[in-house]
Amino acid sequence: MDAAGTRAYYATVAPYYDTELAARDDLPCWLALVEAWKPRHTVDCGCGTGRVAVPLAMQCAEWGGEVVGLDLSPAMLRLARQHWRERRPDAPATALHLQMQDMRHMALGHAVDLALLVDDPLTHLARWDDLAETFRGVGEHLRPGGRLVVEASLLPPEAVGKPYPVVIRTQSSASLPDGVIRVEQERRVEAIRRRADVTYRYYRPVGERSESEAVTAARFIAHYLDVASLKALFRLAGCRLEERWGGFHFEALTDESSMVLCTGRKL
Ligand SMILES: C[S@@+](CC[C@H](N)C(=O)[O-])C[C@H]1O[C@@H](n2cnc3c(N)ncnc32)[C@H](O)[C@@H]1O
Question: What residues make up the domain containing 232?
Answer without folding.
Answer: 3-154+225-266
